[in-house]
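Hi F.,

I've been meaning to write this up properly since the lab meeting, where we talked about keeping a consistent format for the predictions we share between groups. The idea is simple: the sequence comes first, exactly as it goes in, then the C-alpha cells exactly as they come out, then a line or two of notes. No screenshots and no reformatting. I'm using this chain as the first example so we have something concrete to point to.
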Amino acid sequence: MTPAPRVILPEVSLWIEGEPVSGAGEEFPLFNPTDGNQLSSYRCATAAQVQASVDSAQRAFPGWQSMEALHRSSLLRAISDAIDEENEYLAQIESLTTGKPIRDSRIEVAKCAEMFTHYSGVPGQIMGQTIPVSRPWFAFTERVPLGVIAIFTPWNAPLFTACWNIAAVLACGNTVVVKPSEYTPVSTLALVRIMEGAGLPRGVVNVVVGDGRESGDALAKGSGVSKVVFIGSVPVGRAVASTAASLGVPSVLELGGKSANIVFGDADLESAARGAVTAVFGNNGQSCTAGSRLLVEESVFSSVIDRVAEFTNRLRVGVPADVATELGPISHKLQWESIRASIDNAVHSGAVVHATREVDPSLPSGGFWIMPTVLGDENPASPIFTTEIFGPVLAVSSFSSETEAVAQANGIGFGLAGAVWSGRTDRAIRVARQLKAGTVWINSYRALSVAVPFGGFGLSGWGRSSGPDAIAEYTQSRAVWMTEDTYPGSFPSSLPDGDSEAGCEGSR
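Output, unedited:
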C-alpha cells in the first residue's frame, strides 16, 4: 500500500464575512468512513446565524457586482491557481471525510481549478442586446446579477459540486451562502479560506454548517436570498424548492437519477462492458449520473454480463489513502445501511446475483464497506430499477428491440443522464435523441465539463448549472427604454481625465 500523508482536519465552524464563527445549535459528530471512528464534531448553525450569513453576503453584493469585469476575472483566475497549489491538502481532506479514493480526489481538485479558470473568462462576456423598436424609441437590455445565491451541496462530492456552482455564480456577479452536507463540511470550509487567501473579498462567499432540519430550512427561508441551488435527493430538493417558492424565490435543482446504459448487439462489447462498470462504480456508485441501469440486447446479454461480472470482481476495494484503491467505503453510516437493505431486499425478492463478493477481512473493521454488486431482474417495475440506491449496485435487464430499449430507459421518472452503445452511428443518434435525459453519451460515459449545460428532466430536477445556460440562470435581463431626444446626438467637446485621445495611443 502507498498511503497519502495523513492530514489534520481543521476545526469546523461557520464562515461569515471572512471569519470563523462557532455554531450555537446542536452538536453534530463527524465519522471516518474507513473505520467508523469519530473524527471530530461541530455545533450546527442556528436560524439567526444563517440569517447573519445571508446578511453578510448582501452587504458584499454591491461591491462585487459593480467590480470591473477584468478585476473579477483576475480574482477567479487567482483562485484557480490557489486551488492548484493546495491540491494535495484539499484532496486529503476530501478522501478522509468522504471515503473517496485519494487518486479520485486529486483529479477532482484539479477539475475544480479548471472550473475557476473557465469562469474567469465569463465576466467580460455577459452582454445585453439592442432591440429595434418603433421610433422615437430606443431600447436595449443588460444582464444583471440576481443577488445572494444559496447553494446546498451533497455529501458524495462536496468539493466538486461547491466549485462547479460557486464559480459560475461568482462569475455572474452574485454573492454566495453555501451549505455543505452536514456529513462533509470540511473541504468546503477549506476551499473558502483558500479563495479569500487568493484575494476574494470578505463576505462574498459565506458558509453555514449544520443539518437540514434547522440550518438548511433556515437558509431556504433566508430573507434576502435571490435564488436557491440544491444538489441532492428528490424529497429534500422538493421540500427546499417548495419553501423557496412560497417566498417567491426561484430555484435550480439537480436531484439524482437512475440512468440507463443501453448496449446494442452491434456495439464493441468489450468497451461497452468496461464502460458500464466505470459508469456505475465510479465514486462507489455514489454519483447522481451513475449508470445504475444496464439494458442489454437479448442476443448478446450473456456475453456482456459475463464481461461486466469479470470486470466488477477485479475492482480494487480498499482504504482511500492507498493510491491503488478504486472503490473506498460508503461515505456515511445511514447511506451504508440503506444500500445494504436495498441489496438484501432485491435478493430476497428473487433478483439474480451476477457479481458480488465478501468484504475483504483485511479492510478496517467498523468501516462502511460494501462490495460492488451486479443484480439481474426482468421485471422493469422492480425497485432495483426504479429506486436510486446511490451505491455500488448495478441492475441489469434485457431488451429485444430499439422501441423496447427506449421504453425501458424512459419508463421511470428520473432523467438526469444515459448512454447508448452501438456500432451504428444512425442508431446511436436516433436512440439518444429519444431518451428523456439532460445528458446522453454515445459509446462512452461520465464525461462532464462546466462549458456544457448540465441538468435533468423530470424527477431529476430543473435548470442548468453550467455552460452558456448558467449565465441565464444566475443573471436576469433588464430592459432600458429611451427616446431619441433623450440621448446626445454628439460627443461632448472634452473627455474626462484618463479618456483623452492621447491615452488611446497604441491601443490598436
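Notes:
The chain has 15 helices and 22 strands.
The two ends are 59 Å apart (CA to CA).

If this format works for you, I'll send the rest the same way.

G.
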